[in-house]
Prior knowledge:
The complex is a heterodimer.
Chain A: E1 5-7, H1 12-19, E2 24-27, H2 33-38, E3 46-49, E4 58-60, E5 66-69, H3 74-79, H4 81-86, H5 88-96, H6 100-105, H7 108-112, H8 119-122, H9 172-179, E6 182-186, E7 192-196, H10 197-200, E8 219-225, E9 234-239, E10 250-259, E11 262-271, E12 278-279, H11 281-287, H12 294-304, H13 316-334
Parallel strand pairs in A: 1-3, 2-3
Antiparallel strand pairs in A: 4-5, 5-8, 6-7, 6-8, 9-10, 10-11, 11-12
Chain B: H1 2-24, H2 30-36, E1 66-73, E2 76-83, H3 88-95, E3 114-117, E4 120-123, E5 136-138, H4 151-158, H5 168-183, H6 189-193, H7 204-210, H8 221-238
Parallel strand pairs in B: 1-5
Antiparallel strand pairs in B: 1-2, 3-4, 3-5
Helix pairs in contact in B: 4-8
Amino acid sequence: MNPFRYQRPATSEEAVNAVAAHGAKFLGGGTNLVDLMKDNVERPTALIDITRLDLTRIDDAPGGGIFVGALVRNSDLASLPHIVENYPLLSQALLSGASPQLRNMATLGGNLLQRTRCYYFMDTAFPACNKRIPGSGCAALNGVNRIHAILGQSDKGATSAETCIATNPSDMNVALAALGAAIHVVGPKSAKRVIPIAEFHRLPGATPQLDTTLRPGELITHVELSAPVFAKNSWYLKVRDRQSYAFALVSVAAGLEMSGGIIKSAGLALGGVAHKPWRSAEAEKSLAGANPTPEAFRRAADLALTGARGYEHNAFKIEMAKQAMVRALTLAARGTDQGAQA
Amino acid sequence: MSTDLVQTETEAKVQKRSSEESAERGFSRRTFVKSAGVLGAGVATGLPHLVAAETAAAVSATTPQTFRATFVVNGKSQQLTLDTRTTLLDALREYLDLTGSKKGCDHGQCGACTVLVDGRRVNSCLTLAATVDGSQVTTIEGLAHGEDLSPVQSAFLEHDGFQCGYCTPGQICSATALLHEAKKGQLSQVSWETGKSSAPALTDDEIRERMSGNICRCGAYPNIVAAVRQAATRAAGASL
């Protein structure tokens, strides 16, 4: 690990000023950043410890939603009665991720910025990774790519500066995408802006080194959840190699707004398949006004996976994602409080 | 049980912070935030605004940086000047001779390094020592009351919840926190899967899920589950 300065600012403004130093980074729970620093994937010159900033509040938002402070820890958020009751999808997704110890450490803002688990990104022994070293190529394309993307990837060959088939590993982000969350940030000169979750994470495009649309120096202050519409009918389904404490091969956040036995609206996002939580407007639209039948769910799943393309080790994800979607929608229709084994 | 002492102190501190905060501001969801324990911001009060180890101008990328941190470990205040890169695990093992906490993977994947910081279980290998400045840390060495083992420690002995013992300090710290979390009504993924999103009982499935952050290469899992089950049952009985 390279040497770094450690600073603990008292206000968001001080934090934003401090992070302006070359190579400085914010430190939240540290579960991802410190891990990557140990392997020299991340080499910050300074860590700006923001964990004691006053960003742990939960407040009412206009229109019946809530603001959640960026430093609320994942474990606290998952069991908060207001979240359990109104945003069970978020509670489920948070509890699907990592371990109790890591959830105790990890923050809401940090989880939004979690970096990919691509083996070639995480291991500096591989010279080619456009995300780690822009322009170096992509070792995953012709390597072991079981956990990699099937949707929205950049693929111009293993030596192209644009190629990246990494996935976003977060569970929480998938639920936030289905819920249509909004990310509030503050930047230099106290400039505030609100980024819809759909525009917060990005596809690799021609700049795979960028995970998000955050600008330099911007600090996530809180996340806004709009008035709950999926509280009664939602489900987060995570498919992985072991039952607990593993990253998703494929995950689905499904929310249904039901009215008289008919689907009024749907929120649907896929995890483990793309560089960002994959939300399909076409799939959601196809469910609006439909009866909650297996046929309707399969139709939505087919629409969501339109254009999917697999590689040597991950082609199975295409059908797996469709079946996971049908199952998540089936469980959501049955009712959040019913449980998967009921 | 000695961890109750630490947790009680922690809770008292947390409650105090919270009431200080609510006195300052009147936010609408304060009450349920407090009840769920989403806290921590107020701790900065009284600490220096900028704990920079060195001035920015003097820094080069190859110069080791140091900082001074004060934290309480197993009831005893400790002041250490450390390289900023030092993890809590290394501070405990290498500087305080508390070698009970183990370094397994050193990447937050095995749980052997689990300790309690302000009553919460964390991976000390991913926790920078600088960040626990002002906190209460409890390690495996701090769970017993003199010669009296904690209920979780006794249960692990009774049920032979280990073989080589390397993961055991982490397992026991983790299980100790698990009981506290369950008492507060915290959920797990199993709670949702079994339709028990309100006050789930600690079934074996719940215990397995809640202990999943602690790996045991010897495979003593059945006995670990039995030990946690017994400690949970006794804890429930004691509070009646």
